[in-house]
Amino acid sequence: MGIDTGTSNTKVLIIDELGKLLGRGSEEYPISSPRPGYAEQDPEWWWRAVRASINQAVKSSRVDPSEISAIGLSGQMHGTVLLGKDCKPLRPAIIWTDRRSSSQCMEFYEKIGREKVLDIVCNPIMFGFMGPSLLWVNENEPSVFNETFKVLLPKDYVRFKLTDSFATDTSDASATLLFDVKRREWSYYLFSQLDIPSEIFVKVFESTQVTGEISAEASESTGLPRGIPVVAGGGDSPVGAVGCGAIRAGVVSSNIGTGGQTFVTLDEFKVDPEYRIHTFCHAVPGKWYLQGAILSAGLSLRWFRDNFAQLEKSVGAMCSIDPYDLLSKEAELAEPGCNGLIFLPYLIGERSPHMDPNARGGFFGLTFEHGRAHLIRAVMEGVVYALRSCLEIFNELDVKTEKVIARGGGSKSSLWRQIQADIFNAEVVKTEVEEEAAFGAALLAGVGVGVYRDLEEACRKTIRTVSSESPKEGRVKIYEEYYGKVYRNLYPSLKNYWTKAYSEER
């Protein structure tokens, strides 16, 4: 069983040892924004969704729960869950899309120094990550900070509810900005310099290690037998990469979920000296990965759907059609490149490669000739332009791209896959499983209890390619023109304006 506690929903899969899907379940939950720029979720929302999704998966699989050999976990990264001594949340979790801690990011650099940050954390300091979020809580909610008994990442709260044990893994911990990424351990130097008590952090395991088993209380609330082993699992990005087979150098995972990521495995440690992309620990023991992360990938199309596609939502609800499929069909009516219309997907600021909370989204090049189809396609193309800007940094660091695997909700759209192939000028393949993070979590569980020798064997036995899109020469040329002459010049042209206009909002 694989459990993925994502940003907007929880997914649970049950598979057999050959990767055949036996059962699935899912449950949605909202994001709370009590103030502009804030993003929070009640951890109990996740736990309720996990229980409901487990129940759905077991029922749909018709598998006797006693046959489940192990459970793996995946979840949204960077979030901060604060538990008191009664092991209950002291406040809502601060999640990765939160922007309140921008000033704490500057404080982080001032206390540690940029060179030391790069040496230990190996990443830029960004809002929404656990380190700056903890500094914000300490400064703005000192009573909560002082009452904190344990601090957990989102999936590790689910682990605690399942097993009554505290643990995390190297992949998720490495993305807290409080972790020595090269040495794969908590940084006690950072704890001391930032005045964060080390005892609130939990033990770190590699992703395939067993960290506990289903407790009596969890058995009663989920229907799972007591004693099923639960492995460490990992963050949804590296675990999703496992679930689609991106576990060796040269294979790039291109994820269009709520956010978007370009991801490539590193056999040897490497870091971007300019802080534009991330280096984290892989869920594959002993490996790392480079990741470019954009904040508004599928979120950009969801924004369009929720504000300008009420008809599609209504028709979809009545006819059991995904409104995104309708939007994708309409976007096919527009020509590649949208006749010069460019969308900047910076709806909540941007991470890679700009690391700029002040960045803003928008359409550029709008003319009287553009219609709705152009707007939809421009959103899809703009997301892929942003992902390409991350891939180019991989190339700068001499990390080659042999193949691209499309994953996430965006991979369901053949149009969006073709746009990736054309803008990346690379073959883009899709694997059979759509819930890659939950699938990857199940594979980690299988390795943890010896069903597979290692993750290479697990992926080889279970992952199958179902489609492939090749770049089309004419479209490649069009996109190269718009990306090179327009898109990549828009951010530097607008950066100073955004800084002056919007930095005071925080």
Helices and strands in order:
Blueprint: E1 2-5, E2 9-15, E3 21-28, E4 40-41, H1 43-61, E5 72-75, E6 81-83, E7 93-94, H2 102-112, H3 114-120, H4 130-140, H5 142-147, E8 150-152, H6 154-163, E9 168-169, H7 170-173, E10 179-180, E11 185-186, H8 188-194, E12 204-205, E13 210-213, H9 216-222, E14 229-231, E15 234-235, H10 236-244, E16 251-256, E17 260-266, E18 278-281, E19 288-294, H11 298-308, H12 310-319, H13 323-331, E20 342-344, E21 362-364, H14 372-396, E22 403-407, H15 414-424, E23 428-431, H16 436-448, H17 455-462, E24 465-469, H18 473-502
Parallel strand pairs: 1-5, 5-15, 9-12, 16-22, 22-23
Antiparallel strand pairs: 1-2, 2-3, 4-7, 6-8, 10-11, 13-14, 16-17, 17-19, 18-19, 20-21, 23-24
The number of helices is: 18
Gyration radius over CA: 22 Å
Strand residue content? 15-25%
E-strand count = 24
End-to-end separation: 42 Å
Low-confidence stretches: none
Structural class: alpha+beta
- Mean pLDDT across every amino acid position: 95
Tell me about the largest β-sheet. Answer: 7 strands, mixed
Shape: globular
Strand order of the largest sheet: 18-19-17-16-22-23-24
**Fraction of residues in H or I helices:** 40-55%
